[in-house]
Design a protein that fits this description.
This protein is α/β, with parallel strands linked by helices. Helices cover 39% and strands 26% of the residues. The strands form four sheets. A six-stranded mixed beta sheet has the order 2-1-3-8-7-6, sandwiched between helices. A five-stranded mixed beta sheet has the order 14-13-15-16-17, with helices on both faces. Helix 11 links the parallel strand 13 and strand 14. Helix 2 packs parallel to helix 6 and helix 10 runs parallel beside helix 15. It folds into three domains: 171 residues, Molybdenum Cofactor Biosythetic Enzyme, Chain A; 79 residues, 2-Layer Sandwich (Alpha-Beta Plaits); 153 residues, CinA-like (Maf protein).
């Protein structure tokens, strides 16, 4: 069974100017992946006839399916439709069903069809019209030499409905595609270079129809195994065998799979062990608490938190001693210990965690530069601390600290 390849072209100056974010490409790529079609390239181009013609010609040479979005509105800058008519050497004609659809669209809203919108019913004569039930711009399907070109509106909601209800079913009916199966192993606390060294022999021994990809973000690396074949059940079984081989090599870093989130994994551990937790946050400003409370049902284990941004609040609400702050400062191991133990006692929880640091971009010193952060975990038996040396970016430091705290909780609960 041969691979079927696709290319995605998004059209619009607003994308290139950075005025809107292209979410369409990601949606289309995921939809194609689910039916076994590999996207080889994504391209964003301007509302320019030559750009569209060139991009389309090049894409058709490489791909079996070309998906375009954008430029189908009624205004003068929307030139995709007439450019496609030129490319396929056909003419624009008024499509009766398209006109009726647009007329009905306005009648349902108790409005008359504006005269300039009648042009929305002009369609390239050689295309198959795919009707858009959410808007006034129909999609167009062109078949040529065993390949397909599909042009859809750029409005995400309209494109998504057309993809799900019309384009994907039509592609499935015309192309015999292999199965593409993904399994993601989620790790935290190890860089991709370190992981690659540990699992190098396993990776080299993967079957030819499986590939491994490293997908790093701050503090986290996702290991994506992609397998291609004819039968999904067989692929799932084969991939699971490989997962069982590799996970023991990196067990302490693995927190979940596929759609798992670190915050939900930690929540499940707390719930299963019947433990409660509270947070004392300085530099993270409540972000750790946010990660807990974004999970439905977190009230079963998360009691609350204290955002002790000032030293006065650290002392009055958490019981941090003034001598500790005077001698060691707010960003210190001594202070973070008192914060974690203080919030645990104050809110009467099994576990207390805390964060205090120099988030930046200002406030650093030679002894405590920007990115210096202390975190702590207290459970009434032992208090554990860790010093972090992070970045010069405030938001990255807040986010990284919060997830490192979650991973510290995970490790402690699994110890």
């Amino acid at each position: 069974m041969k691979n079927i390849f696709a290319e995605i072209i998004t059209i619009g100056d607003e994308i290139l100017y950075g005025q809107i974010t292209d979410t369409n490409s990601g949606f289309m790529s995921q939809a194609l992946d689910q039916i076994g079609i590999k996207v080889k390239r994504m391209t964003s181009i301007s509302d320019d006839e030559e750009e569209i013609l060139t991009a389309l010609q090049e894409a058709q040479q490489r791909a079996d399916v070309v998906l375009l979005t954008g430029g189908l509105g009624p205004t003068k800058d929307d030139i995709t439709k007439k450019t496609l008519a030129k490319y396929f050497n056909t003419k624009l004609v008024e499509h009766p069903e398209a006109l009726q659809m647009i007329t009905d669209y306005f009648e349902k809203r108790n409005r008359a069809l504006p005269s300039n919108l009648r042009t929305q019913a002009l369609m390239p004569q050689s295309c198959e019209v795919l009707f858009n039930r959410l808007g006034t711009a129909p999609a167009m399907w062109f078949a040529q030499g065993g390949k397909a070109v599909v042009s859809m509106p750029g409005v995400p909601q309209e494109m998504e409905i057309l993809m799900n209800e019309m384009v994907i079913p039509k592609i499935i009916s015309l192309f015999e595609t292999p199965v593409i199966y993904h399994k993601v192993i989620k790790t935290f606390g190890a860089g991709e270079s370190m992981l690659s060294q540990v699992i190098e022999q396993w990776e080299d021994a993967l079957p030819p129809h499986m590939k491994l990809a490293y997908l790093p973000t701050w503090g986290e690396v996702k290991l994506r195994i992609t397998a291609t074949g004819a039968d999904k059940a067989s692929l799932e079984e084969e991939v699971e065998i490989e997962v069982q081989k590799v996970v023991p090599l990196i067990q302490k870093y693995v927190y979940g799979y596929d759609r798992d989130e670190l915050e939900s994994i930690v929540g499940d551990l707390l719930k299963s062990q019947g433990k409660t937790i509270s947070t004392a946050e300085s530099c993270t400003g409540g972000f750790i608490g946010h990660l807990f409370t974004k999970i439905a049902g977190s009230s079963a284990y998360y009691e609350g938190g204290i955002i002790s941004y000032s030293n006065a609040v650290k002392m009055s609400q958490l019981g941090v001693q003034s001598d500790t702050l005077d001698t060691h400062g707010a960003v210190s191991e001594q202070t973070i210990i008192e914060m974690a133990e203080g919030v645990r006692k104050k809110l009467n929880t099994d576990i207390g965690v805390a964060s205090s640091g120099v988030a930046g971009p200002g406030g650093g010193s030679p002894e405590k530069p920007v990115g210096t952060v202390w975190i702590a975990y207290a459970d009434g038996i032992k208090t554990s601390t860790r010093k972090l040396s992070l970045t010069n970016d405030r938001l990255i430091n807040i986010r990284m600290t919060s997830y490192i705290v979650l991973d510290l909780i995970r490790r402690k609960l699994k110890a």
